[in-house]
Amino acid sequence: MADLTLYADSSWQSPWVFHVMVTLEELKLRYKLEALLGKVPCLAHGDVWLTESSAISEYLAETFTPPQHPRIMPFAVEERARARQVMSWLRTALMALRDERPTSSVFQRPVAKALSEKARADAAELVRVSEQLLPPNAQFLFGTWSVADADLALMLMRLVANSDAVPQRIADYAMAQWSRASIRKFLAFIPTTQ
């Protein structure tokens, strides 16, 4: 049994905690979950302590490998590189969209305010890139599920959950990811709003 502890924020608003918990669930690993008031996510695996969601998921992917555990990154080296590129882009771009459609608007309370011009430009860029990355009728970015699908779905849900315009096939992709057991488990921890 793996000695894993995920330290999460008690408000369940961190997209990075989301990323790591989905990774742990997809790998079907047993772990303890603790609330932390410091930098999250933080993963403890025995004597190894890591922060930064992408470093944590890379570590888990390389430590808990197939065939004993499901694959969370694409098999082909080119697709793994593209998955890392997509995840990095989602973490470092689209800031106006993030500001106006925070994760709290996905996980708890939608925002009724219309998007600003800059946020609309970010939304258009997100949709454009998503349409290029996702072939028609594709369920996943790279043929089989990867943690990049969870990250892209979360960013798309910033639009879908707030009733912003999204092409139907892109909204369907995001909602299909949202129905995965690993994501449903994360969502079950989110406190309900009054």
Strand elements, count: 4
Class of the largest domain, according to the CATH hierarchy? Mainly Alpha
Radius of gyration: 16 Å
Give average pLDDT, whole number: 95
- Give the name of the CATH architecture of the largest domain: Up-down Bundle
SSE run: EHEEEHHHHHHHH
- Count of discrete domains: 2
Sheet-strand content, in percent, reads 5-15%
Q: Describe it for me?
A:
By secondary structure, the protein is α+β, with helices and mostly antiparallel strands. The chain folds into two domains: 4-70 and 182-188, Glutaredoxin (3-Layer(aba) Sandwich); 77-180, Glutathione S-transferase Yfyf (Class Pi), Chain A, domain 2 (Up-down Bundle). Helix content is 52%, strand content 9%. It has nine helices and four strands. It has helices at 15-26, 53-63, 77-92, 95-100, 103-107, 117-133, 147-160, 168-178, 181-188, and strands spanning 4-8, 32-35, 42-45, 48-51. A four-stranded mixed sheet has the order 2-1-3-4, covered by helices on one side. A hairpin with a 2-residue loop joins β3 (42-45) and β4 (48-51). α3 (77-92) packs parallel to α7 (147-160) and α6 runs antiparallel to α7 (147-160). It is globular. The mean pLDDT is 95.
